[in-house]
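Narrative summary of target 7.
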Amino acid sequence: MIDRMESRYDIKEVEARIYKMWEESGLFNPDVCVEKGVTKKDAEAFSVVLPPPNVTGTLHLGHAYEDTFQDIIVRFERMRGKKTLWVPGTDHAAIATQAKVEKELQKKEKKSRFDLGREEFLKRVNAFAKESHDTIVRQVRRMGASLDWSREAYTLDEKRNRAVVAAFAKMHELGLIYRGNRVVNWDPKGQTVISDDEIVYEERKAKFYTFRYSKDFPIAISTTRLETKVGDTAVAVHPSDPRYKKFVGKEYDVDFCGTPLHIKVIADEAVEKEFGTGALGVTPAHSMIDWEMAQKHKLPLIQVIDEHARMTIAGPLKGMKTTEAREWVAEELRKRGLLEKEEEIPQNVSTSERTGGIIEPLPKLQWFVNVDSKFEIQNSKLQGIKSGAKITLKELMRKVVESGQIKIMPERFEKVYLHWIDNLRDWCISRQIWFGHRIPVWYKGGEIHVGGAPQGNGWEEDPDTFDTWFSSGTWTFSTLGWPDETPDLKAFHPTSFMGPGYEILFLWVARMILMSTSLLGDIPFRTVALHGIVRDSKGQKFSKSAGNGIDPLLLADQYGADAIRMALIAGTALGNDVKFDEQKVKGYRNFSTKIWNIARFVLLNRPADVRGSNKSVEADPRGYVAALQELKKEVTAHIEHFEFHLAAEKLYHYIWHTLADKIVEEEKAKLKDGSEEEKAASYALLEHLLLESLTMLHPFMPFVTEEIYGIFTPGKMLMVERW
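Modeled conformation, tokenized:
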């Protein structure tokens, strides 16, 4: 026992020393816990993989919240004696990282990636990613995250690349991956395909035009994108719309602003009768909805816009930007007397999340994951789905959630997930960028090889890279050694829970379910606990792109990581957004000081002889020990149900208002003027209540609790004490 404590709690010194002690102990590693006898060899496993932060810069408070959220449950389960693994890692975040480096390259050197060439450009990106990684890891450690650093992974490292190649090859073999021409979201600025989930919708003012193709065309249509109408092949109306029934099935040849068009009138349920004129000009090459109609009605596809958002059609429009072409067509319609109405409306414009470019739907030859085609599931460990059963990915993704094999919390997000599954299209997994995993397909003449590099000369690898979510979709099992049958994979998969923000439910959580069920025949995790977004004082999301991110390290040095953790957790229910307030952090810094002062007071009043005092604790005539045990039951239940905010608030109020304000005050007289026996009993009670309180508070405020616990119980580490 150390007989004294410093009068002042030195946050910065203590937190640095304590994290170093944890790391050097090796006890973040479940194997070491078993070796040292802290955890039983046959203990129940509890595993989590860290949602890997992108190597695009530094972390902000949103990441600190996410790490704290997970660390609470990890520390709690470790203290319950489970064989607990929390796997760290970072994400190469292909488009985001490449876009960041390209922006800097243009700004500083006035060059593009094409000026440098693929090899030199990738050297620059990898150097940037390494620097970002080192900063991120330093920040994660500083916040107290109890990760097993011996198992750190990177989505673009050699092991994960091997997993990605194996995943692609197996899914291709199962018939789940194909190469085909489909309309995709094309980013003219980034010169690549992006997914639906990487689109940001910006509200802008737009002109809404109502017109006819020619004077003798019987139907007027409305659009905001006149320039695409030179690629129309049909007009679609609702089957039950009486205005247009007599025209359905008819075909017309028209001269539209100098461009000859062959237009067929079709009936389709996708048309909204009340929108515009109730008739829709169908442009199969430049709209996903129209492309789907074209497949159904066997319509031709005419591409009139290229990858640089310029017109390709012969005549005066050729080479024009789409915005210029829109104005030209509008003026031509006015001249011809075909423009019936013009009005200004608000419109949601699709833009690329990473580059800000306006998305242009284009037909492209790409690699896709087929979500609607049945395949034979292998080695199924899924409830109600036997090995050899024929099932689609959509059905799999739906069944594992509906059956309760995967629980999504809060419950409202389960409905959101299932609705998204209903509307899921085939997933385009190829990207036209250089940074990332290359598509493992090789070509030579008419031959195709799928998988690792083939033997012999003359083979050329597909130039495209994977959508970053393909590699991160394997995260729960690639980090545990798949495609090999490793001890880690056997012991820790499926993982116990996943704790990301609700904004990546579709981007990542759903993709992990897709990849794990199809490749392993098993779920990736049992519970998904979706937390909210940390917002600034104006309610805006903290993000690197917005430039409003606060470095947790600066705050931690000023107030302590413990204070930040409590400020982010207390008062915020699962799935709700956090409005960050620095005053709240100051308040919990004061709480750290309060805990320190309580402990110091107790230690200063430690009698020379404390023998026999435990009997008075067990007797507990005033019910303080019993009340604390009731609190422990409540706190345990709250943590088990991811109600961290309630557990944190109850512990705060108990320690400050019950332990400090009431019990300590009551015991002061005995400690000062009581008999030796009374002093020993009083001390024993306070020490018991203090150490039990520290144990419960540890998952939330690990540094100050570990430091004080070690002072009172030398040689013991609170991190692995029993809950």
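The chain has a mean pLDDT of 93.
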